[in-house]
Automatic annotation (TrEMBL):
Residues 23-154 form the Nudix hydrolase domain. It holds the Pfam family NUDIX. Keywords: Hydrolase, Magnesium, Manganese, Metal-binding. One of its GO terms (molecular function) is metal ion binding. PANTHER family: MITOCHONDRIAL COENZYME A DIPHOSPHATASE NUDT8, NUDIX HYDROLASE. CDD domains: NUDIX_CoAse_Nudt7 (cd03426). InterPro entries: CoAse, NUDIX_hydrolase-like_dom_sf, NUDIX_hydrolase_dom. Its cofactor is Mg(2+); Mn(2+). It comes from the Bacteria. The keyword Manganese applies. This is Coenzyme A pyrophosphatase.
């Protein structure tokens, strides 16, 4: 294959994320609710019966199914399933920046309005509690920030003889930053806090 053939083969290709097909893909929704003319954000407390992160605070959302046409559809579908709402009560759904994680995940966050809470009936298999926090609290409150240091531990059969430095190779360790919001008795942290902080930063932008 000569260089011209290579260029012709690749020139119309649209770049994506390397290994995209292998990534676990999820979508979440930041639900905005008007209560007495004040905007609130709705949160869920995950059921203690769930295998993954029981009892944690999160936004409605979940895995993108193969049959879902796009991440926005997934975020709305998961919200209706978890909160017992109809799709017609979820309005003005807009995308935020998507999140890629080291553990092979990509999360598509959205924000949207819930126009009628009267029919809400959370699914107890997934949601143990729902609560609201005024948006003004997050606009006026910076999250607490803590570092988690990550350590590199090669497998026992790692081929040190193939790399310069061998067992004395200078691995570059790094850390992740965890954010925490404390509102009354609730603690919002992890991915939910990171997405929330991104949303608040967008609102603060001029």
């Amino acid at each position: 294959m000569n260089t011209s053939e290579i260029i012709n083969k690749l020139k119309d290709r649209v770049p994506s994320i390397l290994g995209y097909e292998q990534l676990r893909k999820s979508a979440v929704l930041i639900p905005l609710v008007e209560i007495e003319n004040e905007t609130h954000i709705l949160f869920e407390v995950r059921s203690m019966n769930l295998r993954s992160q029981p009892g944690d605070i999160c936004f409605p959302g979940g895995r993108i199914d193969r049959d879902d046409p796009d991440p926005k559809y997934s975020a709305i579908r998961e919200t209706t399933e978890e909160l017992g709402l109809t799709e017609s009560t979820i309005k003005d759904v807009l995308p935020l920046d998507y999140v890629t994680m080291d553990r092979g995940r990509i999360i598509y966050p959205f924000v949207g309005r819930i126009t009628d809470l009267a029919q809400m009936k959370p699914n107890p298999a997934e949601v143990s509690e729902v609560f609201m926090v005024p948006l003004t609290y997050f606009l006026q409150t910076d999250p607490e920030r803590y570092k988690v240091n990550l350590q590199v531990v090669p497998d026992a059969n790692f081929p040190f003889d193939l790399i310069v430095g061998g067992e004395n190779y200078n691995w570059h360790t790094h850390h992740i930053e965890e954010l925490f919001y404390k509102y009354e008795s609730k603690v919002i942290w992890g991915l939910t806090a990171k997405i929330l902080t991104h949303f608040i930063e967008l609102l603060h932008e001029k």
